[in-house]
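Protocol step 4 of 5: obtain the predicted structure for the target chain.
Materials: sequence only (see below). No template structures provided, no constraints applied. The aim of this step is simply to have a reference model before the mutagenesis design in step 5. Sequence pasted as it appears in the construct record:
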Amino acid sequence: MQDVIKTPRNVEELSLKELKQIELEILLDFDRVCKDNNITYYIYAGTLLGAIRHKGFIPWDDDIDVVLDRTNYNKFLKARDQLKEKYKVYSIDVDKNYSTPLAKIIDLDTKLVQNVKDRVELGVYIDLFIWDYVPDNRFKRKLLFSFLDFNQKVWGFSIKHASKSSIIQSALRKICYFLRFDRIAARMMDFACRKQNRKTSKMGNLMFGGYGDKKEICSSSLIDEIIDIEFEGHKFPTFKNYEEFLIVNYGNYWELPPVEQRKSIHNFVAYKK
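Step 4 output (C-alpha cells):
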C-alpha cells in the first residue's frame, strides 16, 4: 500500500488531464531541441505502449518516458539550455544536489511532492532514460547486474520516507541520507554504465532498471531504424521494430489489464506554484 501524500494547504492539485497536458508540452519542447541538434531519441516504455494502443497516454497513466543512447544523451545535456526558460534539466551529471539515477526535465511553474526525499525541488516532469551496452560475456554481465542492483537498493533505502519503518530502520535511513549515500550510489551506477561503451549485441536501461530481468534488455539493432508514430495528435520517433520491445515488456500488449490494475504506479501530488 502506498503512503498517502497530502496536498499542501491553499493550493489546488492538478487534475490528471492538466498533468498530462503539461507533460506533453515538455515533450514537444524536448523534441524541438533534439531536432534542432540532430539528437536521436525514442518514446519509450508506457509512453510507447500508449502511443501504439491508444494513440496517446494510457488513460490511467500519468507520465512520459523517452530513452536515448549514451552518445545522444550527452549531446542533449550540452544542448539543454536551448529548452524554454520554464524548463530545467535535472541530472546527476549537471546538478551536484540531484541524486536520482535518471534525468528529468521539469516544469518550473509547477511543484511536485512525492513519497521520497528529494534533494531538489521538483515540478511536473518527463523522464529521460539511457540505454547502454550490455556485456556479451555472461560472467561480466552477471557481475555488472549485481553491482547495479546493490547500488539501486542502497539508493532506494536512502531516499524513501521511513513512516512505516522500525526505529532502527528509520535511523539507518536518516544516516544514509545524511551521508548522501543516495548520491554516491547513483554516481556508482553511472560510472559502471559509462564503462559499457564498447558496442555489443545487447542494450538496455541499466541506470534505473530491474537488473537481470530480460525485459530490460533488447537487441542493439533495435535502435537502428526509426519511425514516427502518433501520440496525442503529434508525431514522435520510436523504434521501427517497436513490437519486439512491447512483446518482451508487456506480452500481449493489445490486451488491457484487469480493471483493478488500471492505476498509476506513481505516488505524488502536483500543483501550480
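Step 4 remarks: The two ends are 29 Å apart (CA to CA). The chain is about 35% helix and 20% strand.
Proceed to step 5.
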